[in-house]
Amino acid sequence: MQTMAEVLEEARTCGSIGKAAARWQAEQDGVPTEHVLERMRASLAVMRQSIQDGLSPELRSVSGRVGGQAAKMAATQNAGRFGLLGRACAYALAVAESNACMGKIVAAPTAGSCGILPGVLFAAQESEGFSDEALVYALFTAAAVGRVIALQATISGAEGGCQAECGSAAGMAAAALCELYGGTPKQAADACAFALMNSLGLVCDPVNGLVEIPCVFRNVGGASQALAAAQMALSGVSCPIPCDEMIATMKDIGDTLPQSLRETGDGGCAACASMCSRS
Amino acid sequence: MDMFDIIGPVMIGPSSSHTAGAARIGKIARLLLGGEPVEANIGLWGSFQKTYRGHGTDRALIGGLLGMEVDDVHLRDSQAFARQAGLNVTFYNAKLRNAHPNTVVMEIANAEGRRIRLQAASVGGGEIVIQSVDGLDTDISGHANTLVLTYRDTSGMIARISGQVAESRLNIATMRVSRCAAGGEAMVTLEIDGVADAALIARLSALKDVYHVSYLAARGETVPETLC
Question: Which end of chain A offers a freer environment for a tag, N or C, measured as fewer CB atoms within 10 Å?
Answer without folding.
Answer: C
